[in-house]
Amino acid sequence: MESKILKPILAVYVGLFILFLYGPFIVLSILSFQQGPEGGPQFPIIEWSTYWYQHLFGLTPPSRIAPLPVGEALVRSLTLAFMTMVTATVLGVMAAQAFRKRFRGAGVVFYLIVLGMMVPGVLTGLGTSLLANNVVGIERHWWSTAFLAHVVYTFPFAFLVMLAILNRFDGSVEEASWSLGVSPITTFRKVTFPLIFPGVLSAMLFAFTLSFDEFPRTLFASGRDQTLPLAIYGTFSVEIHPNIFAFGVMTTLFSFALLAVYGILMGLSVRRAKKMAMQEDIA
Amino acid sequence: MTQSDPIFRLEGVTRRYGNLTALDGIDFGAEDNSYIALLGPSGSGKTSLLRVIAGFEAPDTGRIWFQGRDITDLPAHERGIGFVFQNFALFPHLTIFENVAFGLRNGATKVPDAEITDRVRASIDMVGLAGLEDRNPDQISGGQKQRVALARSLVMQPKLVLLDEPLGALDANLRERMQTELRTIRERLDVTFLHVTGSETEALAMGDRVAVLDAGRIVQYDTPDAIYDRPIISDVALFLNRFNLFEGTLKDGSFHGAFGAAPVSSVRANDSDVYAIRYDRTRIFDTDASDLPGPALPVRYLASEYLGSSIIFLFETADHKTVEVDHHLSLGEPRDLSVGQNYILSWDPAQAIVFGKEAAQ
């Protein structure tokens, strides 16, 4: 009886939820097929076309609308996201590994690490740039100060993911390895790492995506050369054309591709995880 | 059994977790090439002891010697002591073959591939798992996992293997088969097994010698029959689960308990007065019997348990304490008892073991 009322309500709720989640993207994708170069970033669609996609890749005849200045920014952002991903994940795994043993001041250190994702981004960005300019006296670059700000931001996420994974990890396989005369370092490489790999993959995904579209911290910390989110923001101040929407669709598709790769890698290591779970059941 | 130099020795080993003392100044040495069972109830510190010997944990005080060398400060992977876990702890991402080969492949000394293959095959053969080399750990049964864990340890040719309740995760049938097998395998190799268990039957059946651990101390270390016949304190008698224990007072050469007064010939030092008589030495009489061999304990019959070779009769005393009688069927047909009926239990007082505070002084 109860479910007859509750189910439709929940269904509507879920529908609305998904609409809010994907509504902007759907509108964006539709408008990206606006006619060009006259068509603007609003409804109605004058005529369906792929003009703005061609425009993005410089395949259209020259017009008064300048090509989107995102090429270099995209490369920069991808490089920065990759650097951040590697650093934050390595640090995250190492820090989480350290927390498997209780040590003096563990609580304080935990909050200090997690603080990195709590403090307002604009302030971190501003602070980083002030520190670089006035205290240390170095120039700001996307690959130095902004990179640092990104690592500080993404490291806690990687850390928390790894903490959750290692929390469930049964340490007796490591002890078994030691008792076979295998050093702790080799044990980590040959036993621990393969078994926590699904978690490492998640930490990497977090770090990459968070860094890739990071705005507030990068705004002040990146210096002269802009990252992708900054470059896109910069175009807003002139005039908005549907080529930004086309670009948005492209980057979203890229994100999906990234998720697909993650999904495949995850699927491959899930077999291992299953085996691990079965062993735990017996224990 | 031949006596030889201890393969490992503990000197005053103490381990504390906060306020809890898991190991309380343990002094212990184990003979080379023997099977030692370490018996203790849960919480007696038996797993802590194994972990300290293996090097997974450091003792707070005390030294550990192995093959004449002080290994107290040596990390686990440099000790050369094997360890078999209750949950097997196989490497789930490796095949059976690679599980067994793991130590040879990744150890400090390089072993040629051909030798690895030979040794791994020999080891897998020994535990009777030939043909399963390419399986993954999730494709084999619990008993097979236990054998892999054993083969993985033994392939390193350790002089000492620590087994932490290795049969605890197996069902009863398999447990008995593995008991025999563990003993046979050990006898074939020149290796000492230190087998931790909470089961008194397992300890008595398997060990050449049995060490009884209680509250972080080894209270008795002896052959199984000596432990069975002459438990050194009442707690040991209690773990053995083969004695009816009675509280009472020891005074002027006789013990006063629920069964009246019984003459006492010798007394063992203990922190309280306890009278112990084995289940299979306790006999059942009618309430009007006149030919009792010793003291008379009035009881009410509760139930019986058929064990195949013997029957356990359960009785209740006036103060609601359960008393057991083990009647071995080779001694003839058991009596026909009716539930709720009153009987008298009696025994030969010479067969009782008496523990007393007096003897401690």
Automatic annotation (TrEMBL), chain A:
Coiled coil: none annotated. GO terms for cellular component: plasma membrane. The keyword Cell membrane applies. Belongs to the binding-protein-dependent transport system permease family. CysTW subfamily. The chain crosses the membrane at residues 12-33, 73-96, 108-130, 142-166, 191-212, 244-268. The keyword Transmembrane applies. SUPFAM superfamilies: MetI-like. This is Putative spermidine/putrescine transport system permease protein. It is found in: Cell membrane. CDD domains: TM_PBP2 (cd06261). It is a multi-pass membrane protein. It holds the Pfam family BPD_transp_1. It comes from Roseovarius litoreus. Residues 74-262 form the ABC transmembrane type-1 domain. PROSITE patterns: ABC_TM1. GO terms for biological process: transmembrane transport. InterPro entries: Bact_Polyamine_Transport, MetI-like, MetI-like_sf. Keywords: Cell membrane, Membrane, Transmembrane, Transmembrane helix, Transport. Gene3D superfamilies: MetI-like (1.10.3720.10).
TrEMBL record, chain B:
GO terms for molecular function: ATP binding; ATP hydrolysis activity; transmembrane transporter activity. This is Spermidine/putrescine transport system ATP-binding protein. One of its GO terms (cellular component) is ATP-binding cassette (ABC) transporter complex. InterPro entries: AAA+_ATPase, ABC_SmlMolc_Importer, ABC_transporter-like_ATP-bd, ABC_transporter-like_CS, Mo/tungstate-bd_C_term_dom, P-loop_NTPase, Transp-assoc_OB_typ2. Gene3D superfamilies: P-loop containing nucleotide triphosphate hydrolases. Residues 8-240 form the ABC transporter domain. GO terms for biological process: quaternary ammonium group transport. Pfam families: ABC_tran (PF00005), TOBE_2 (PF08402). Keywords: ATP-binding, Nucleotide-binding, Transport. It comes from the Bacteria. It comes from Roseovarius litoreus.
